[in-house]
Amino acid sequence: MTSDEISAEILAQFAQTPYACTSLTKLSGGTANFVYRGSLLHPLPDGTDTVVFKHGKDYLASKREFTLSTERCIIEENALQSLNHFSESTNTNTDGAGETRHITVRTPHLLASHLDTFTLVLECLPNATDLKSLLVGAPDALSRPHAVAIGRGLGTWLSAFHAWSAAPAQTALATQLEKNHLMRDLKFSVNYDGLVGMVDSRPGLLGENRAVFEQVRDMAAAEVGKTEGAGVGPIHGDFWSGNILLSNPNPTTTTTTLLVTDWELAHVGPHALDLGQMLAELYQLKFYKNIDAGEWIARAFIEAYPGLSEDVAFRALIHVGVHFIYFGSVVPGWGDEGQV
């Protein structure tokens, strides 16, 4: 099916619901799914006039020859249903000049779902952009105080999510996420099999590290399937700057809302994977693009994650290295050959 045919299918499916739309606009991004912004035929009672439709097929939207189970859509729906009841994290930060910034971090509200067609209806954050695109496109978009406030907000939220989702009251959510073996195993393979595979692609540079890389892979493989223990529990699974949407990314704004999106990879695993992936992506902004805000956010992010044990911190640093070696080398547009 073409994107236009999928759009027409969604319009027809929701025509007799409060989410009937006059038109759909395909949004950029969306590696796995087809994502559209819909203009509602009639505003919702709270005045909302736009929503987001996220539609999954059994293949990647960006690479249709790559098959991927639509079970991922059910996992995300389950996660967002539960997260509708997870309190947002609000931080107030005052810098040395006396300027106060209010940062709210939460997940997008799930408005409706049709799992028979693997379609979710989500709130639309007006004038939003993702954190990575914002900083790559406008490296000076965030002042240092604003970047630090965002980092603190993300660290506080992630710590609260890890604690909340591991509590007995969220056993049902943890049980559902533990079933997400497909995406858990895919994440492991991409990162850790990919790490060892880099030796073959760059033997002159990495050949002598094969044994170490294999030990790291084996260590991570031994973690797969663990459901309890210190530093283990439900995780986002794809926690990086590209999955953080910002409202009002304006240097003069004092109030910023951040939405943590894309929950299809959520599963039970080491908390360090969420920490390490975000740290790696933020620091790559500094390493490859010399964007200071990446480092400012990264430092504030980890400082705001309370009670970080040495074991979890060390495991997170290992994942930072894995992410740098693999994704830093294969993602187009990151660095030049010398940097890689």
Automatic annotation (TrEMBL):
Originating organism = Aspergillus campestris (strain IBT 28561)
Q: Which residues form the Aminoglycoside phosphotransferase domain?
A: 106-281
Q: Which Pfam families match?
A: APH
Q: What is this protein called?
A: Aminoglycoside phosphotransferase domain-containing protein
Signal peptide stretch:
none
